[in-house]
Amino acid sequence: MENIFIFGQNQSRKQAMRNFITFGERIRFLREEAHLTLREVAGSINIDSSLLAKVERNERQPTKQLIKEISTYFKVSEKELLSEFLSDQIAYKILDEEAGLDILKIAEEKVSYLKTLRNE
Predict the structure, then answer these.
(1) pLDDT for 3-32, tens place per residue?
(2) pLDDT, averaged across the chain
(3) What ranges do the domains of the chain cover?
(4) Single pTM value for the model
(5) How far apart are CA 33 and CA 89, in angstroms?
(6) For residues 61 and 69, is the Cβ–Cβ distance under 8 A?
(7) Distance (Å, whole) CA 100 – CA 12
(8) 3-95 topology per CATH
(9) Three-point CA angle 54, 59, 64, nearest 5°
(10) Could you give the residue ranges of the DSSP H alpha helices within the chain?
């Protein structure tokens, strides 16, 4: 597989692609890579297949519990899936804002500040 240079790291094209897909697309990718149907996965994690389909299409937001169940089912990191989901939420919120990258920089500073308050 061809290697490409992204964000200061050498990554395979497949790894780089994963960095730019949505949470729902990642779930669909995992399911299809395992050659499973919506019904099979949904039944295994005790949800309706229509709900899973909506999550895959980014029409419904998963709960933290659902993210945990999906991560366990596919044997992927729960932290990684949660990060992907939260990064989608942030991206969608600032997508139409004119100062998108500036907002991210300010938010990063606020997170650092809020962490110091928690540790006091």
Answers:
(1) 333 334 445 555 555 567 899 999 999 999
(2) 85
(3) 3-95
(4) 0.72
(5) 25
(6) no
(7) 28
(8) 434 Repressor (Amino-terminal Domain) (1.10.260)
(9) 80
(10) 13-19, 23-33, 38-44, 49-56, 64-74, 78-94, 100-118
